[in-house]
Every structure is written in C-alpha cells, then in structure tokens.
Amino acid sequence: SAGSDENDVVVIGGGPGGYVAAIKAAQLGLKTTCIEKRGALGGTCLNVGCIPSKALLHSSHMYHEAKTTFAKHGVKFDNVEVDLAAMMGQKDKAVSGLTKGIEGLFKKNKVTYVKGYGKFLSPSEISVDGLEGENTVVKGKNIIIATGSDVKGLPGITIDEKRIVSSTGALALTEIPKKLIVIGAGYIGLEMGSVWARLGSEVTVVEFAPDIVPSMDGEIRKQFQRSLEKQKMKFMLKTKVVAVDTSTDIVKLTLEPSAGGDQSILEADVVLVSAGRNPFTAGLGLEAIGVETDKIGRIPVDKRFSTNVKGVFAIGDVIPGPMLAHKAEEDGIACVEFIAGKEGHVDYDKVPGVVYTHPEVASVGKTEEQVKELGIAYTVGKFPMLGNSRAKSIDDAEGLVKIIAEKETDKVLGVHIMCSNAGELIHEAALALTYDASSEDIARTCHAHPTLSEAVKEAAMATYDKAIHI
Ligand code: FAD
What we know:
Helix content: 25-40%
Shape: globular
Strand content: 15-25%
Bound molecules: flavin-adenine dinucleotide
Structural class: alpha/beta
Number of strands: 21
Radius of gyration: 24 Å
C-alpha cells in the first residue's frame, strides 16, 4: 500500500515543519512520505492557528474600520452589521483552499501522503492507524518527527470549546460573547481578544506575569498595551485564576493577585484559555525506540536536528526554540538538507516575531533589555510613525520604529516596530541582521517614498546620526 516500500525520508506530521520538509526532501530527489492524522495538511498553523486567526483579524478589522473610521475618510453608509456566519465562512474557505493547495504541492513534487496516526515500531518503521481503520507500516531510512504542539490547559479548568475555549474554539464561536475573558496575555490571546473586541465583546485579559507578551522590548510593550487599552481591552496583570464556576448561565472566575491576597469574581460568557502550547508526542511511541524528551516534553536535537536515536530527526514546535510556523519551516528545510548530505542552518536569534493586532508589533533580534543584560554598549534610534508621511496620509500613524545597534561597530542588534503592517516591514531588518548590516547600511539604502518603510530608514538614521522628518 501507499508508502510501504522503503522511503529515504518519512515525515510524521503535515504542519508547516513537516509538509515543507517533505516537499524539500522530494525536491532534493529523496523518496518521501508524509503521515498526517488530522485528515488535512497544514497542521496547527493552517487549520487552527496562523491562517484562520489572520482571516478573522482581517475581517473584524474591516468591520471595526467601517464602524469607526470610514466616515472620517468620507465613506458613508447607513448601517454596518456583522454577519458572523459569513465571516466564519470566509475564514473556512481560506483554510480549505490552502489545505488543498498543499495536497496539490505534494502531488506536484511526488510526496506520498498517508492519512493516519503514526507510531514508531522501530527507528525505521512507523505503524499508521489509517483514518478509515486500516493499518499500514511505512518504512524509511530517515524519520522526521514534526508532530508539533497542542493547547496547554490550566489545572482545574476544563476546556469544552463552547464556554471555556482554547484558541481553536475562539476561532469558531457562533455568537459574539458579550463578555470575554482571556487568560494569558501572549500573542495568541491578544490576537483573539482583538478579534472579539472589534466585533463588540467586552474583553478582559488576565495575566499571571507583570507584563503582556514577555518576549517584547519593554518600551514597545508599554506603548502596545496603551494602544490595546485605547481599543477598550482591559488588563488584569499579576493576577491568577484560582477557580472557575460554570454551573450557571454565566461563567464565574475567581481571581487572586499572583502574589496572594484578596479574591475577586469576574464574570464572562466565554473564557479563552491561552496559556501557551505544549509539544505534542502522545501516542507516538517515543519510549519504544528510546527517543529522549526534556522536562517539558520537547525533543532535544543537535545542530543537524538529530535526536539521540540515529536516523530519527525532529523539527518545529516539538523541539526547543520559538514556537512559530516560519521557524518550523526553516527547521524542516535545514534538517532535510543535512539528510541529503548538504549543509543547513537556522539562526534562532534572527527569527522575526509578529503580533497581528492593529497596530501590529514585529521584532527581530535582541530587545534593549537583552542587550543591557549582555553588557553590550549600544545606541538606540527611534522614529515615530507620526513623522511618516504615508502613515499620516492614511491617518494611521500610531507606533514607532526602534533600532538597537552596537555602539562600537554600529552593527544592528535588534529592530522593533509597532505600526500597521509592521509584520511586512520587519523583513528588511531580518535581512540586515542576516548580513550583519550596520544601521548606516539601512539608512543609506534608498527607500521608496511615500512608504511606511521609510520609518525604518529614518530610525536607522537616528541610530548613528539624526532623522530628517522629526
Ligand atoms: P503543527 O503545525 O502543530 O503540525 C503538526 C501536525 O502533526 C498536526 O497537523 C498533527 O495533527 C500532526 N500529528 C501529530 N502527531 C501525529 C502522529 N503521531 N501521526 C500523524 N500526524 C501527527 N505561528 C506563526 O508563525 N505565525 C502566526 O501568526 C501564528 N498564529 C497562531 C495562532 C494560533 C491560534 C495558534 C494556535 C498558533 C499560531 N502560530 C503562529 C503557531 C504555529 O501554528 C506553530 O508554530 C506551527 O504550526 C508549528 O508547526 P509544526 O509543523 O511544528 O507543528
């Protein structure tokens, strides 16, 4: 049956790590099979992550803009309404189109696609329980574990995906909750909170830590939080959830300061638990072949993405490193290049991170806090979007660009951007870091006018010299 002859590469998991690895392996001339249990390719990212969330962020942003800013631009209509079913339908269409697109790419590149749950029998044999009950054994000289991650629950809270939801349920609500509580102020919680806040929910974000998005540059984070507060999102930081009561129509959360103290009750129609994600290796049979995992269930790998068992590799969310789709893809390509006898390389210090709210926040490289902690002498250049003509012309001038460079050499160490489209703007900074560019290199690169990207150039000018437009 499909995939039962020996493969050069077998990939377990068809997410952005796994499917990209499979395509790249086939492109390098390796006989490749990819096993996926979900019935659709694309993994968390495409099915219940990056893609559906961005679809809803876009749709809800359009509604919010129509309601709050169109009239200012001279675009008027009588009534703006949300048709939630249609909005969800648009999201589902985007997801299914892209999922089928990957199946098409598998065919084009001659990757064998096996639908089912994979489990190690030996380091070169995978037993697959097919979606229709049939069982096959897939053999491969090299096996890549790309099984990704799953929602992390909280002790004492049962996720029913209706009133107590994970991000998966929050992407598929059938009604707009009047009150939504988000537990966890990471990027997923803030993105999903934004979606529902724009559609009319009263959103309160409860976070155990003293700050939202801990990985963010502190200065940017402060401005970002203020911006979300202006959008009527409420924050309860340094607060923990101690109990949840779902016995009545309304969900009641008992809260307490993280450090202990007086309890309070917060009510909601829907509670989103977004306290992080766990590596997923359930039912994979790692113990049977002796693949080690660390304290939090991740699979440690060496520079070639090899586990402690020869011929067994691991990539993506299931290994240490940023839990992001593009990082998983980079892992996948490098891992397969090593298997094919070439060289591969992924620098986790240069993986951009983006929060797709409005404004967006994007960053690459080190934060000011990290540079300080490393004891590196540095300079900072900043440029507010208020000085950017394109941002002013479209009346969307919230935010700034901040560049951190090494004082002695002017080498760019980190770039942090908050503005609409920051997620697109960040890539010239990523390229600058890859090429060890100086802030002067960015500043002397001719940037088209009028573009938001000019703010990056101006911030670079301000890093080693002075900006013009502020
Ligand atoms: P996954 O995408 O989790 O894929 C693993 C696949 O393996 C799954 O499809 C699973 O069914 C399958 N599998 C597992 N075990 C087996 C088995 N034994 N046999 C067969 N198949 C198996 N990242 C970004 O970069 N940008 C974003 O905007 C972004 N937004 C997100 C929004 C949300 C709401 C969520 C939840 C995540 C988001 N992420 C985002 C994170 C991103 O989804 C993950 O980092 C990415 O999907 C990891 O890719 P992966 O291939 O390692 O694993």
